[in-house]
């Protein structure tokens, strides 16, 4: 396990890259989950000399408690819902559908904002390093892994700086490999494990992608 807290997302990405070095062989691509996962992914891509892209995923928040995930949706028409949680909380189909439709609209907006008309990279037979700044419930990352399967990824490595232990257990059943630097037992939120955890903006995501795509961008 690594020393906590991380200074910021860039520090987390540098440390993750060190752990991934030598474990990822081309063809490979690094995909960040917007928005907070993209600065982490950008550092990994830069240091491992790999292409950077994004995979848009949206959490489905419990009505009235939106920070608490009851599922997630992702590019490619993937929907993951925690049916047991939905039943326990008494969330009816109409309320669930309303959340899904709202998040689909935001997913489409972000797809356009970050990707425009660019097609996804060719993932067939490729290793995909799927990155976020941390994992709480794991619903968002699980949806992302399932989306990658639909997009034809050859191998999926989930790479995160910090995660809740229970969520890691679930993800290991879905991904080919999970690389996590820290899994503290007393986990309440991702942000508690960073000294600086400002919200990542759309502009920062676009800048990370532009910097990675620019000819002559220094790497390593």
Automatic annotation (TrEMBL):
InterPro entries: PRTase-like, PRTase_dom
Name of the molecule in the record: Phosphoribosyltransferase
Domain of life: Bacteria
Organism this protein belongs to: Modicisalibacter tunisiensis
Domain Phosphoribosyltransferase: residue ranges: 12-180
SUPFAM superfamilies linked: PRTase-like (SSF53271)
Keyword terms of this UniProt record: Glycosyltransferase, Transferase
One Gene Ontology molecular-function label: glycosyltransferase activity
Pfam families given in the database record: Pribosyltran
Keyword Flavoprotein among UniProt keywords: no
């Amino acid at each position: 396990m690594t020393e906590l807290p991380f200074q910021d997302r860039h520090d987390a990405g540098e440390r993750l890259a060190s752990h991934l070095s030598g474990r990822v062989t081309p063809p490979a691509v690094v995909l960040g989950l917007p928005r907070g996962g993209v600065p982490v992914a950008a550092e990994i891509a830069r240091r491992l000399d790999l292409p950077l892209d994004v995979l848009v995923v949206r959490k489905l928040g419990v009505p009235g408690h939106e920070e608490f995930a009851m599922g997630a949706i992702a590019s490619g028409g993937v929907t993951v819902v925690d049916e047991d949680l939905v039943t326990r909380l008494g969330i009816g189909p109409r309320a669930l559908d309303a959340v899904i439709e709202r998040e689909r609209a935001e997913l489409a907006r972000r797809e356009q904002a970050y990707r425009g008309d660019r097609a996804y990279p060719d993932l067939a037979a490729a290793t995909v390093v799927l990155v976020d700044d941390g994992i709480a419930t794991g619903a968002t990352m699980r949806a992302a892994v399932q989306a990658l399967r639909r997009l034809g990824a050859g191998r999926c490595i989930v790479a995160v700086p910090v995660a809740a232990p229970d969520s890691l257990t679930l993800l290991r059943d879905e991904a080919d490999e999970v690389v996590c630097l820290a899994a503290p037992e007393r986990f309440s939120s991702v942000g508690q494990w960073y000294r600086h955890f400002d919200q990542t903006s759309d502009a920062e995501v676009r800048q990370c992608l532009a910097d990675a795509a620019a000819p002559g961008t220094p790497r390593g």
